[in-house]
Amino acid sequence: MNDKLQNTFLRTAVEYLVLCFGAAAAAFSLEQILIPSQIMDGGMVGIAMIISAKTPLPLSALTLAFNLPLVFIGGKKLERSFIFRSLTAMAVFSGALTLFSRMKNTVTQDKLLATVFGGVLLGFGVGLVLLSGGCLDGTEALAIMISRKINVSVGQFVLILNVLIYLTAGALFGLDRALYSLMTYFIVSKVEDLINTGMQQGKAVMIITDHGREIADDIYRSLGRTVTLIPGSGLISGDKTVVYCVVTRIELSALRRLVGREDYKAFMTVSDVSEIVGSHIKSTSAIRRSEQQALPDDVVIAEDGDGT
Fold it and tell me: Which of 196, 225, 242 is the last residue of a domain?
């Protein structure tokens, strides 16, 4: 039990460290790259940036004032840890904004460089915060409330709000700033997706063969992966076995070599998997056991929760 509690504590501590790092990275992107070039973010942070640019009010205080109520409202529908993590992230974000705003030198004055690298760094920071179970912007919580009152989806509301923000930025700072801001928004969205799903991206492999059991045993011994065996029938070739397995990109080359043996005469297709939910990696102890003996014929080569 002590070991379990210790592991839980260490995992939580690492998640909070990643969350704080992401919040600091997002703040650096805003204050040192985007704001000097008058490039706006979307959501509540974008509204705060516009108001801060036209008033003496600090951006750090405005982001807290706009986002805290929305986080509390949205947190009622989610886990309690969501509120704690979001409060932590916003506190670090606000403090980092204040700190970085006092730095005189900026990273770049080039608008295109600011758009690209500012968007990448901002998306990286926000993605780490989301990956750690928190958030920096309460726009989606507001969108959920609005969608219950009128016939508009959450995604539509967020898009409409951001379009209005960028139109306002265009009217106040020039059309080119609105276009740069819109480009930044798309870059941030893509990098967020990469952080939250792309890093976990796997490959789904389907192998059509007459030697399904043998290939399954080899995959189990060599890669430590379980598979699903599906009966199939070719239009001309007759009865076949379809072997389905999810592997990482690193393991894919080893799987190609394994399936490419001439005696298997297998046909293999590979497709992307954007997200994997559940444990699909077998323990090393199970791998060692499988190295000592082949699987018996009466064992079903599948495992609950591994997606295969």
Answer: 196
Cβ burial, residue 303 (10 Å; 0-12/13-18/19+): middle
Q: What is the dihedral of CA 140, 141, 147, 148, to 10 degrees?
A: 160
Is residue 293 predicted with pLDDT exceeding 60?
no
Asked if residue 129 belongs to a domain, the reply is yes
Q: How far is it, in rounded angstroms, from Cα 26 to Cα 136? A: 9
For residue range 126-141, list pLDDT tens digits in order: 889 888 888 888 787 7
Whichever domain contains 287, its CATH number is 3.30.70.120
What is the extent of the structural domain holding 272? 201-292
179 and 223 part of one domain: no
DSSP 221-256: HHH----EEEEEEETTTEEEEEEEEEE-HHHHHHHH
Mark whether 185 and 206 lie in a shared domain: no
Residues 189 and 207 in one domain: no
207 and 185 together in one domain:
no
Q: Which of 37-41, 142-146, 151-155, 279-283 has the lowest mean pLDDT?
A: 279-283
Distance CA 218, CA 254 (A): 11
Give the CA distances from residue 241 to residues 67, 266, 300, in Å, rounded to whole numbers and listed in that order.
54, 10, 14
Say if CB 33 and CB 107 are below 8 A apart: yes
